[in-house]
Specification:
Elements: H1 4-16, E1 20-21, E2 40-41, H2 46-58, H3 89-99, H4 110-133, H5 138-156, H6 171-189, H7 191-197, H8 203-223, H9 227-246, H10 251-263, H11 272-294, H12 296-308, H13 314-330, H14 333-351, H15 355-368, H16 379-387, H17 391-397, H18 399-419, H19 433-439, H20 444-455, H21 460-485, H22 493-538, H23 541-553, H24 557-571, H25 577-587, H26 589-594, H27 599-611, H28 621-630, H29 634-644, H30 646-657, H31 669-691, H32 700-713, H33 723-747
Antiparallel strand pairs: 1-2
Helix pairs in contact: 3-14, 3-28, 4-5, 4-11, 4-22, 5-6, 5-22, 6-8, 8-10, 8-22, 9-10, 9-22, 11-16, 11-21, 11-22, 12-13, 13-14, 13-15, 13-18, 14-15, 14-28, 15-18, 15-28, 15-29, 16-17, 16-25, 18-30, 18-31, 20-21, 21-22, 22-25, 23-24, 24-27, 25-27, 27-30, 28-29, 31-32, 31-33, 32-33
């Protein structure tokens, strides 16, 4: 929260300071506020300054309290240049409400807002303390955690997103909140006696377990959506059927057994997923909230502008880089699409990109942020725990797939820009290297986290806690430097320091509250993921599903991979990244392992296709969110996003067949480099064919040839495969190069503004 005194100084300084502006923005998706911010850069022309000042004077945002975590050269909240036409706050908020259930929250204002945020901030501090210092039984710690989640969950999420009143919570939500939390607290305070009882729990305990499960399911419906609820409900019905029919239990005994296993054991609602969520994920979510408020997002955007903004169609390339970096930290495909897309999409449209293409670029890039190392939306730490390998190994493995994914998007974006004759951003409007060096300290918390976890000095929980503290310190330094530059003549160092302390404390409280809010959907999804794993384990359904897919696949691994891919996309619909992976690791990864796919390859395969649900029609929530901002056709935007993310559909199959690509079998380093380079060239061929442009329009036959040859190039070479693999790669390379040479010869000197036919 920005105080009025500081706000006044900011507004005065903005009006009197001449700055050059490069169009960058980040929006904070916390409870009610959506932020549009713009870092100024030196050396821009006065005309830009004039436009910026006019935009500020005309904007309704001037004088309001705006929560921001954007790095600016002067630390001020600068309103976006009107010419860039960013999406208004209210519109962005409506889009988030429509497509991102995590943003569909109650509206709290005034004192109630302060109280609710205080409760959430206390919860975050409680989670840190319990994770670091508690030695209680897992049953105690996890049920207390879920009880608190139920309380803050019903304070945040309404039953119906279309009927939200300010400062209002209906009586039935209060009742559900109290009863649901009481069920978990009852278990926490009576854990030892209940554990000793086993399946001999009485009728009261059965009712408590049923109510607790139903309340968590309802909270999941509100924050995540219905698909995961349907899956859990079907599995619970099957589990009940299994115990009654297959085991010959009477109805009451079957009910008692199901409730006991799903609610009172660590193989159900308080299973491995929620344990990992409580131990690691919540802390990393809080860390991400601190990063957003220290200004790292703004730094990422400025960095993207500097390295790619000058090239052809630079606005789209800036969107790709900034969305990848910001999405890596945010952990939400839809949320990041709306926040960064509120500025990047209008920028792309303004420079000449079609609305469908602009929305698709942002959606595909934001989704790709979830596979971007080293954070991967906090999934990297979760994957390390599930697979039992060091975190640094997970981050290293993810580098090549991420490189291929964004390489494919870059190729398509570049070809689209060339097809339309689009230019880049003038150099004098780009952030300077001096500005970036001056603000590079903002990435210190991220560097510290990666270094501590990689070194294995502390546990991941302790590492996250240390990183949160470092982020707070860096934020304090950032605010101090900002306030010192914004000081007036009457301000002393003491007054500036006091103002900085107030800002830092308010920001920390806001980050803790945002971390708690962002943890709700992940926690309830992880709780239900534990029930999914428990049901398929206790009933033997996992073995039956595995055997069915293995039987259907026969000797053809590709069939098993395709069936697993479809399962991942369906199960991943609308589920947060980390919870998504929990579900995939419990349900789909064992299928591939049974088919002979190495452990790491199997987990990466299901993780990739789980998050691809966000850009895969007909679900494609991230694409639909991008479409809403771009004012484009939703399905066309989703199809375009799928085309842009084509690498993510191909690469998992590649490393499933050839684990050498992600270093899961002994392979020489030069082979990894060679395979990566060949895969990038293959993606260039695929992108050219799909885009229908390379120096000019490509005829249909050559388009098909480029796509097929590009895929052939992407088949990794290995010394063991010998001549066969090398021959396929060589033929593919020659055909793609042939298409390139032909297009260069025929169209190289023609009008570069020719339209693509994709």
């Amino acid at each position: 929260m920005v105080h009025r005194a500081r706000e006044s100084r900011i507004n005065n300084r903005v009006r009197r300071k001449k700055t050059g502006v490069a169009p960058t923005a980040q929006q904070d998706v916390d409870v009610r506020e959506t932020v549009v911010d713009l870092p100024p850069h030196p050396g821009a022309p006065d005309q830009t300054t004039k436009q910026t000042l006019e935009a500020i004077e005309d904007s309704d945002l001037v004088g309001e309290e705006i929560e921001t975590g954007i790095a600016t050269e002067e630390g001020a909240d600068i309103i976006m240049d009107k010419a860039a036409a960013p999406v208004e706050t209210d519109e962005a908020e409506q889009i988030l409400r429509k497509f991102d259930r995590e943003s569909n929250t109650r509206i709290w204002e005034g004192v109630p807002k302060i109280i609710v945020r205080a409760i959430m901030a206390v919860f975050s501090v409680y989670c840190i303390g319990m994770t670091l210092f508690s030695t209680a039984l897992p049953e105690v710690r996890l049920t207390l955690f879920l009880g608190c989640i139920v309380i803050i969950g019903f304070l945040v999420y309404p039953a119906n997103k279309k009927k939200v009143r300010t400062n209002y919570i209906p009586w039935y939500d209060i009742l559900l909140m109290i009863i649901g939390a009481a069920c978990f607290f009852y278990f926490a305070f009576n854990a030892l006696p209940i554990i000793k009882l086993g399946t001999r729990i009485d009728e009261v305990m059965i009712v408590i377990g049923i109510v607790g499960i139903l309340v968590v399911a309802e909270l999941c419906r509100r924050s995540v959506g219905l698909p995961i609820i349907f899956v859990v409900a079907a599995l619970l019905i099957y589990a009940f059927y299994f115990f009654v029919v297959d085991r010959g239990m009477d109805l009451m005994l079957a009910l008692r057994t199901v409730v006991y296993r799903m609610f009172y054991t660590t193989n159900g609602i308080i299973g491995t997923p929620i344990n990992v969520c409580y131990t690691y994920i919540v802390l990393f979510i809080i860390f991400g909230a601190f990063l957003e408020r220290t200004g790292i997002a703004g730094f990422f955007i400025s960095f993207a502008n500097r390295i790619a903004g000058w090239s052809s169609g630079g606005a789209a390339k800036v969107s790709v880089i900034s969305s990848a970096l910001c999405g890596m930290v945010s952990g939400s495909s839809v949320g990041n699409t709306v926040t960064t897309g509120s500025v990047t999409i209008p920028m792309m449209k303004k420079t000449g990109y079609k609305p469908e293409f602009a929305g698709a670029v942002e959606a595909a890039s934001s989704t790709g942020g979830q596979i971007m190392p080293p954070i991967m939306g906090a999934a990297a730490f979760l994957m390390a725990e599930y697979m039992g390998i060091p975190y640094i190994q997970v981050a290293a493995i993810a580098i090549i797939p991420a490189l291929l994914y964004f390489g494919g998007i870059f190729c398509t974006v570049h070809l689209e820009a060339k097809a339309r004759g689009l230019k880049g951003i003038p150099f004098n409007e780009l952030p300077t290297w001096i500005y970036l060096l001056k603000n590079c300290y903002l990435i210190i918390p991220l560097v510290v986290l990666v270094w501590i976890v990689s070194a294995g000095i502390y546990t991941m929980a302790v590492s996250a806690a240390i990183s949160i503290f470092v982020a707070f310190v860096i934020g304090f330094i950032h605010f101090l430097l900002t306030n010192w530059e914004e000081r007036t003549e009457e301000d002393t160092f003491g007054s500036v320091l006091l103002e900085t302390c107030k800002t830092a404390l308010w920001t920390a409280a806001d980050a803790f509250a945002a971390g708690a809010r962002n943890s709700i959907a992940v926690a309830v999804a992880c709780a239900l993921a534990g029930m999914i794993a428990g049901c398929i384990t206790v009933t033997g359904l996992a073995s039956m599903l595995i055997n069915a897919i293995v039987l259907a696949a026969g000797d053809f691994l590709i069939i098993g991979l395709i069936l697993t891919m479809l399962c991942c996309i369906v199960l991943g619909m609308g589920v947060p990244t980390t919870a998504n992976y929990c579900i995939m690791a419990a349900t789909c990864a064992p299928i591939l392992i049974q088919l002979g796919v190495p452990l790491v390859c199997a987990h990466f395969f299901v993780f990739y296709f789980g998050i691809l649900a966000d850009i895969t029609p007909p679900v494609a929530l991230a694409a639909y969110a991008g479409s809403a901002i771009a004012k484009s056709k939703p399905m066309k935007t989703a199809v375009t996003a799928s085309r842009l993310g084509i690498a993510a559909y191909i690469v998992p199959f590649v490393f499933a067949f050839c684990p050498a690509l992600i270093m899961q079998v002994p392979v020489e380093p030069y082979m990894v480099v060679l395979n990566t380079a060949m895969a990038l060239f293959g993606l260039f061929g695929v992108a050219s064919g799909l885009q229908g442009y390379l120096f000019g329009k490509i005829n249909p036959i050559l388009r098909v040839l480029a796509i097929v040859a590009g895929v052939a190039i992407m088949i990794p070479m290995s010394e063991a495969d010998g001549i066969a693999s090398l021959g396929i790669n060589a033929i593919g390379f020659l055909f793609v190069f042939g298409v390139f040479a032909y297009q260069k010869l025929v169209h190289g000197k023609k009008d570069k503004g020719t339209k693509a036919t994709a």
